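FYI - complex with zinc ion, inputs then prediction.
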Amino acid sequence: MLFDKNQIHTLNDQALPDHRESFEYLSHRLSQRSIQVNELIKKIREFQVAIPSWALGTGGTRFGRFPGGGEPRSLEEKITDVGILHALNAGSGAISLHIPWDIPDNVEKIREHAAANGLLFDAVNSNTFQDQPDQELSYKFGSLCHTDARVRQQAVNHNLEVIQYGKMLGSKSLTVWLADGSSFPGQMNFRKALQRTLDSLKEIYEGMPADWKLFVEYKPYEPYFYHTVIQDWGTSHLLASQLGERAYTLVDLGHHLPNTNIEQVVATLMMQGKLGGFHFNDSKFGDDDLTVGAMKPYQLFLIFNELVEGMEDPRSANPSPAWMIDASHNLKDPMEDLLQSVEAIQLAYAQALIVDRAALENARDSNDPVLAQEILQEAFRTDLRPLIAEARLQSGAALHPIRVFRQLEVRKTLVGERGTKSLATGL
Ligand code: AOS
Ligand code: ZN
Ligand code: ZN
């Protein structure tokens, strides 16, 4: 670890009187609403969000990239960075890898390094949206949907190889996001492309170990701009249903056309037991990959409201979804951004947990939209930040992660070790 964990405790002590005051007040108010504060804290402490390996460096756009320095140069350094985040917030205890960007050279060493940092390996991601230098055939016109069977086979084989890496590291799921699509009307046969994609996915599904899950991500456009083979949750759900029990839909918050009711998508998938995973981020226009909660915190809360309702429903057949962030940074320090994202997720989750569900159901049963709104917004407008801070404190993490990140000069140390020009592998 870059710093001694005791340094976090020393900084916490300075912030403690202030924290105590706000937490005691909040705690008292919540108890008056018959909310079990300790139960709430326990749930927050258990909730872990996976950090994507590709979000630890600067993303940039097609117009340019402005790296801030000290970026992780290897898988090992990416794990180090997530370990720092987890030490600060105790809420990011997993990492999601991307092959081939994160091929482990020494599996044993990587596993040990992750364990030493308290990290698990979440879903592994395949990459058939770029051509790699040593690759025989091109994905320019698609991968799993390609007209040429040899290209499809190459893409299938790549996914099978990703599964092997995941197995070695202790991962239990594969996320497939395809860029496959077309940019011009007439370019591709919709029906045949979807059929070929399903057939290719079947081979991948069959190549997974029996205790693995397959997550099928959807996206309406980009990098192609006329059609995407897996354009929406319905198409993803169709594929997942035909593949089998262990195939699920993955919802990336940025992958919807404007004004889509994402909370309803979540509820529908959960009703079918088919919500497998989440890519959290936020956006104004499209797949902006901005900090979670930066634009639409109320929408995030409404999504969590459905997630909590689905998870608490004893009849729900939906397994606990994989929680992951998918982000890209052009302006912020990637690590500070991820700390903000994790906190936004924890807040929305906590707010959803304090919704008076029985009262809400009553309001719904008596067709009282005014009361239903009051109940939801009562929860949303309760400032739960002291509760999240208390959860961190109880887990031995920082009361104020970003403040501590700056006080300990983490970025400066990383730049000192890795240089100003170090670039993370990834997008
Ligand atoms: C792409 O838009 C998807 O969100 C992917 O999930 C992800 O960003 C990609 O796999 C990372 O390169
Ligand atoms: Zn994504
Ligand atoms: Zn995306």
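The longest helix spans residues 5-32. Residues 54, 98, 125, 177, 217, 219, 252, 279, 287, 326, 427 surround D-allose (ligand 1) (CB under 6 Å).
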